[in-house]
Known about the structure:
Two copies of one chain form a homodimer. The first copy, chain A, is an alpha/beta fold. The first copy, chain A, has helices at residues 12-19, 23-30, 38-51, 57-64, 85-101, 118-129, 144-151, 176-189, 205-220, 237-248, 262-274, 292-296, 308-321, and strands spanning 69-75, 105-111, 133-136, 157-160, 170-174, 195-199, 230-232, 256-259, 284-286, 303-305, 329-332, 335-337. In chain A, the strands form three sheets. In chain A, strands 2-1-3-4-5-11 form a six-stranded parallel β-sheet, sandwiched between helices. In chain A, strands 7-6-8-9 form a four-stranded parallel β-sheet, sandwiched between helices. In chain A, strands 10-12 form a two-stranded antiparallel ribbon. In chain A, strand 3 (133-136), helix 7 and strand 4 form a beta-alpha-beta unit. In chain A, helix 1 crosses helix 3. The radius of gyration of chain A is 25 Å and the shape is elongated. Chain A binds a DNA duplex through residues 9, 11-13, 21-25, 27-28, 30-31, 34-37, 40, 55-56, 58-65.
Amino acid sequence: MRQSQPGQKVTIFDVAERAQxxxxxxxxxxxxxxxxxxxxxxxxxxxIRSLRYQPDQSARNLAxxxxxxxxxxxxxxxxxxxxxxxxxIRMQQGALRACRAxxxxxxxxxxxxxxxxxxxxxxxxxxxxxxxxxxxxxxxSNMPRVVRAIHSTNTPLVRLSPGRRLAQEWYVExxxxxxxxxxxxxxxxxxxxxxxxxxxxxxxxAVGNRYLGYLDGLARYDIKVKNSWIRQGDNAFNSxxxxxxxxxxxxxxxxxxxxxxxxxxxxxxxxxxxxGLRVPQDISVAGFDDVTLSRQLDPRLTTIRQPVARxxxxxxxxxxxxxxTEPQGHCVAAxxxxxxxxxxxxxxx
Amino acid sequence: MRQSQPGQKVTIFDVAERAQxxxxxxxxxxxxxxxxxxxxxxxxxxxIRSLRYQPDQSARNLAxxxxxxxxxxxxxxxxxxxxxxxxxIRMQQGALRACRAxxxxxxxxxxxxxxxxxxxxxxxxxxxxxxxxxxxxxxxSNMPRVVRAIHSTNTPLVRLSPGRRLAQEWYVExxxxxxxxxxxxxxxxxxxxxxxxxxxxxxxxAVGNRYLGYLDGLARYDIKVKNSWIRQGDNAFNSxxxxxxxxxxxxxxxxxxxxxxxxxxxxxxxxxxxxGLRVPQDISVAGFDDVTLSRQLDPRLTTIRQPVARxxxxxxxxxxxxxxTEPQGHCVAAxxxxxxxxxxxxxxx
DNA sequence: CAAACTCCTGACAGCGCTGTCAATAATTTG
DNA sequence: CAAATTATTGACAGCGCTGTCAGGAGTTTG
Lengths: 349, 349
């Protein structure tokens, strides 16, 4: 009786023979197809276990005309200063989790979103590897050219935080706007009413939603929007610093600064501290994203944790259903991470 | 005459027909095999271009019995606080670059190095996907169990910064020890002679080499090694803080602190600053790794930049030759990143 | 000029699996 | 209980490519 000898490859034939069924039935069991009698299934599973059979991916791929490979496509951070590394790692982690649960492997494909020919690049990738599905991260998920290119290949696509959603499309998004308003709740609870906002770059639609959430939050407490307290940043550290400089120069300065992302919040906080002011005693600072940096700052930054991993995880599992189900969207909730950079407002000042 | 219609799959037959050769000859051209007449090669290449033919990976994989997939296996950072995210991203970037140059795709496989069964986990992965090669990052690259498991599958393996190198093995390493001594050069040039060292966890053999480099450096200038200035850390931020505390408590304190990694250096710097001392005016601090954090500290940390991306890039290209060449090692040079946390020693104190 | 090479090319048999479809077994229905 | 329906299984033909090997073209040698 043949046992799994190291190096020996166990094929579906071996399993079929051992279980006294046809290879097709083994295939059914492996692929979790319906219409297999329970007793047969068990028999086959037992044979699989005892032989330690593992289906050969390449063969499955060729025969089934798709690769069981999920592509995770995101903007290449090589151009950035790598602040997004943590973000990418978390995306990968979530996607990997779902891939393992299904029968998939993960192919990562960073690409430079400023390049013209991403469309054809992705088409090549898809043709060559026969990707079974694609998860597209922002800002690529908001680029019509890219989305169209993928659609033209008929490859199932799930977009992450798409700006405008089209009908009949798969997507996963977060409640940016809502949770952004929750940050205002938090600040108001601490006694703040003079809350400034540093806007981000609008290319990322999601970042725009954060501003709307800020407005929602203020409205909820009948706080009047003060335009001088709303500064435009560009998502980068420096622009946060600059915005803080402008805010502190005002005759009436805010007691709290909420930035549309952590980098800008960090920049703002640095400026505030350098001016000899204390955070949070003199001014509270809050960000959005919960990047690694936010926990390394002193004081640690209050921010909003994006459930990035859960988003990609969900996206991949949607992909698994995509052949059988109608397109649908999904919202994964973000949550506040309250740390030391926000504190009670000192009205006594 | 058939043109590339979107969605239409172009097979090797189409190309063969167009170029008036057999499919085997097309295959030869695609795979860059020798023994094809130049004129034939050009004819085929022209046909490939005009039809935009792309070989089907799955079919190649099945027929050739290997996957053209390179596995990048590293320790799962999910357990860590993600400081290593930048490191992982850079590994991926380098590997991807080489993969694209060759005809490969990259499969990432983070795994938890503390788990018992990584060996069988990797064997499964290899059998299922028929990985053509593996790049193994530290600390996994130093675990005999893991290395043995991979060897047992006869899959080409390149280890990154392996501790002990075995004969007849592929590896890529950096000159940690040497460059570590260069950091001493740098500090001595600034006038320092009282240089403390914070050792790291010895599991990472490479980290041990950094300590040796420190000793080499001191020896070079006939500086006597002072044991009280050598503290043991565990690679984490806190242990750096603790070490600095011990160092500052000494009657004769060092004028510079060199830590075996950036996290510990950052911890040390935080403690120094909190004591009201200035960096670098009162004490210089240097690290090793050039993690993202090091550029976000204030002052920015002088450190050593590991050419991580180039290491993996090289590793993948070694893999490509591995079938034809004898195993060999390779050393990629690291370099100093001198920033604001190191400065002239003030002997006048 | 035949013999002995080397270089180039093509025919053909799979690689290990899945899709299709037909056959058979089990179950329900009138 | 026969007929109709549904559930379960297997035979077989590829999926699109590469490895093997044999044969033809081109070159060199004695």
